[in-house]
Every structure is written in C-alpha cells, then in structure tokens.
Amino acid sequence: MTAQLTKEEKFEAIWQGKLSPKGPDGNPLPFQSPEAEKAYKDRILRFKDAIEMKKLPDRVPVTVFPSMFPWKNAGMTVEEAMYDYGKCAEAFQNFVLELEPDVHWGAYAPGSGKMYEILDYKLYAWPGHGVAPEHSYQANEGEYMLANEYDALIQDPSGYFTHVYLPRVFGALGGFPMLPFLPGILEIYGLPLSFIPFGLPPVQATYKALFEAGAEALQWIGAIGGADGALATFGFPNILGGFTKAPFDVIGDTLRGTKGIMLDIHRRPDKLLEAMEALVPLMIGMGVASAQQTGNPLIFIPLHKGADSFISDEQFKKFFWPTLREVMLGLIEEGIVPLPALEGYWNTRLEVIQDIPKGKTVWMVDQSDMVEVKKTLGKNACLLGNVPSSMLNLGTPQDVKTYVKNLIDTAGKDGGLIICNGAFFDEAKLENVKAIVDATKEYGAYK
Amino acid sequence: MSEELIKAITEMREEDALKITQEMLDAGTSPLDVLDACRKGLDAVGKCFEEGDYFLPELMLAGEMMNQITEIIKPKLADMPDRERHGKVLIGTVEGDIHDIGKNIVSFMLDVNGFEVLDLGVDVPPKKFVDAIQDFQPQVVALSGFLTLSFDAMKNTVAAIESAGLREKVKIMIGGGQINEEVKEYADADGYGRDAMAGISFAKKWVGVK
What we know:
The structure holds two protein chains of two kinds. By secondary structure, chain A is of the alpha/beta class.
C-alpha cells in the first residue's frame, strides 16, 4: 500500500497477497494437498469476481457468518469459548471443515473474557459478568459521553478517547486522565515535568493492567490466529480484515447512546454533524490499520441506527449517510472493500445508499426486501445474504434450500451475489446451516 | 395558550414548550389544564409517528418535554390525575436479552394510545412475567427480544404462563430483531408485530378499542 499506487492497484495488490499466503515463518504456506491449494485460490477468486462485478464467477459464492453458533454447536457455553482459547479455536476449525464454505470469518467473535476482566470492561455484559454462561455478550448502553463534551471530542478525538471515554468504559484505565498532554513534549526545557504522571501510582497501575491485557491478548491471538492458518492449509481462507463503524453509530452506540444521539439531532444538530466529520479520518484509519495488519481485503461495518424505523429519510440523508459514505470512499481509496451490514430493515434507504462506486463494496442484507435491494443498491454493489435466523433455527433443510434457490434465481443471475445468513445468530440447527452451503453448491453454478 | 403549548410540543420546539408552560402557570392556568395540553401534544406526536412522519428523535424529545413539564407541574398538584385507560399491557424483554430500544418505543406508543403499561425491564425471567400477570391483571402481554436466544426464551415464557393457568386470561404479542410469524408459531404467541404500530393494533383489537 505505497503512496504511488492507484486505488485499483492497491486493490489488486491486497487480493494478490491473499492469493499467495505465507506461513508464520514467512515462507509460502504449506498446503495439505495440491487440491487444497487450488480450492483456496478458486474460493478467493470466486469472491473477488462476485465483488468486482466485471465477470461472472464459476458459481455463486457461499459463506456463513455466525455469531456464537460454532461454539454452541460444539456443546460449549459462550463462557468456555471466551476463556478457553484452545477449545475456541478447535471448535471453530471443526465447524468450517464440516461446512466447507468458500470463505470463513475467523474465530474472533468470542474474544478474551480474561482480558476484559483485567481491564474491568464496563461497556459490555458477558458470561459471568452480567449474562448467563450460555448467552452471548451484550452492550450496556449508556451515556458514556456527555452532551457538553462535543467540543472536546471535535477538537481532539484521540485525546478525548484517551482522557475521557476509555477510562469510563475500562475501570482499569483510571490513570489515563492523569496522562500528560503528549504534543507538549517538545524540548529539553521542562521535560521532566511532562513525565511526572508516569511516576504516579494510578498511572503505573493502569500501565500494569495494560501489560497484563497485552500478554493475554497475545495468548488469545496465538490460538485464534492459529485456526486461520490451519484452515488456510486445508483450503479455507479468511478474508475479513477487521471492522470499522459509521460515525453516526460510533456516537449513537457507544458514546452518547441511542437516546443521547436522538435528542442531539434536535438539540445540537451542528455539533453532532461536526463531531461525525471529526470521526471520519479515525474510522478510515481504523479500517486501514487492521486491513494492513491482517492482509485481508474486507472491512466489516455493522450498521445500526440508520435503519428504517430509527430516523426519517431526511434525517438519514443529513446525519447518517454522508459520513458513512466518506468512510467507505476512504477505505476504497486504499484498495479495501467495505462490507457494511444492513441490520434490520433498510427498504426506504436503498435509493440513497446506491450512490457508491460500482464493484467496490459488499453489503450484508438482513431483512430488507432482497429483490428491491438488487434493483437499486445491487446495480452497483455485491450483496451478501440473507437466509433468515428464524429459518435456521426453526425451519428445515428443505426450507433453506428453497430459500437459497429462490435467492439465486431472483438476485443472483447476473452475479454480484454471495449466499450467507442475513443476521448474526447464536442458535440454529446444524443441518439448516449446512443447507446454506450445500444448496448454493447445488444451484449456484453459472453456465 | 393551550393551543400554543400543543403546537410547540408537536413541532419539537422544546424551549418554547417549557416557556409557554411557565407562562400558562404564571397567568393562573390550572396545572391540570397544562397537563392536558401537554398530553394532547404527545398524542399528536404519537400520530405523526404512526403516520411515518416522526421517528425516534421526535418520540424521545417529546418524552423529554413531557418529563420536564411534569416536573414543573408536580409540586403544584396533590396527585397526578389518572387518565382514562383502554386496558393494561404488561411488557418486558425476555430472559437472557438486555436490549430495550424496541421495547421502550412500544411502551411509549402504548402509553400515548391510552393503555396502562407496566414495563418489567430487560432480562425478565418467565416467573416474573407470571407473577406480574397475577398482580397487575393485564389483558395483553408483550414480549420483546433482539437476539436469537429470545426464540426459546419467548417459548418458555408463554409455557410458564400456560402452566400457571393464566394463558386464557391474556393475549400475547411478540416482536424485536429476528422475530417473525415463524417465531410466533414456535412460541405459541397470539401475534407478531414488526413495528410499534402493529403492537398498538393488536392491543386495541384485543381489548376491544376501535
């Protein structure tokens, strides 16, 4: 990703890198067999073709993007998956090997319960910390940023996160508000004054917690990243490069909360708009950094509070869409493929969100009307979805097969379709989840 | 001035609404009349929401205006007067799920549509619903859930209501995230609503409001 490359060249470079995987030692990844190597490359190209919409892939690609299902299916509790990294990785590996989807998304969903404990994480409830062992973690919504703090966020978003937001959501980061103003460290005169905070017990305790959290995170990635590597040798690539968020959702989900942002639309619309603009470079940077770190081309963007029933179309056009679009264009500029997820219903937004460059994005569709989505957004973008969670849980494999066949017939004829579940799920019947993959392979060939 | 207060609330002019409230009280308007105007404003906001002109920002701001005006009026009233109600609805997010945005919208809309609502909050175990049915005697029970775990939690809640011998006394509606007709059948509920308006129609139909 050097500066002199065009965005098209950067795009190609990332996918070419993905097609020539390296092992942990830096040498070419040793595949289990020549067949596994061929399948790996075919699967990546199948996705790439579907996304670019320039030529048809050999068949409709298929994947499954679950939440906690792989671990529940293995008879584990979510708690076990969050605390026993080895078991977590092994269960996920078995899940992918049994399903044989074209690509997978890694065993990253459970995360590290131990690390959250070390940091005294308050933003989420997780098993043993507010939810039962068998249930998934869930957000504790709150007003973590106060209404009168917009100027602080706008002037220095990173400083605001360090000094104000992070200590509120991590109990162990109580030393952060005492940290010196780092851009004030310029010359020798007065230099020791800037370093006094690092000698203070609360700051040292915070750094101690950070060291422990970092060590735990390394343990975790050793196991979880190991599953990615092992699955690649069997021919199953992970193409997820990380995630970022729409600026409206950053403020609405985790900073001001739903009520806070909805009131701000009326009470302080200009500050809200200004703050979202200030967050754009950070959200681009977040996506670019993790895509570079992983070498994977897709950056996931879960979309929440712009759905049909939250705000009006006019509010969507003014508050939600412009900065989301800027974030996506910023990622595309770096050759990265944004993967926004239209969680819930987005039927009234389709005309607006189709305004994006063709063949550069993939959209996960949940309960929006797929035929309408195809006619609008689908002219410019690959769609991924949308087998319903209720069907995976309560239906039969035949229901799933019929649904998938219909999706392929109505939304997949000219390419630009990837078959997948529509929303993240924890509970389902394995035979129904398998039917997603099997039905796509059965009906999805392009002749 | 009542008309002005109703208009200010309906048009989302928060500062004006508070100013007019104070002016009305200063001019000797009875607190009950102020409260009545405020409720009419809220009803109008509810209608705009039902018609798809207003969304969460307006519902939440209307709720805030109502709270602030109630705070101003409360000291001047011996008791908050009861409104005439169509019926009672018991609502809560089912066990294991702590999402509350959808539930809160439905609660708000039921309230402005003239129902007495008892909100049990989030992560509500089946037994708590059963106990509340016995104490509160609602005609309608509304179960909310966002995650896929809520399919079973809803089924268990309906089953608990059944085994407590209360199933015939209440109509049960469900909604939220991944809920649909298929889940309604599975949970053995009486209705699934995709949005708050669908919930209001069920509640009205079930208690016999036109």
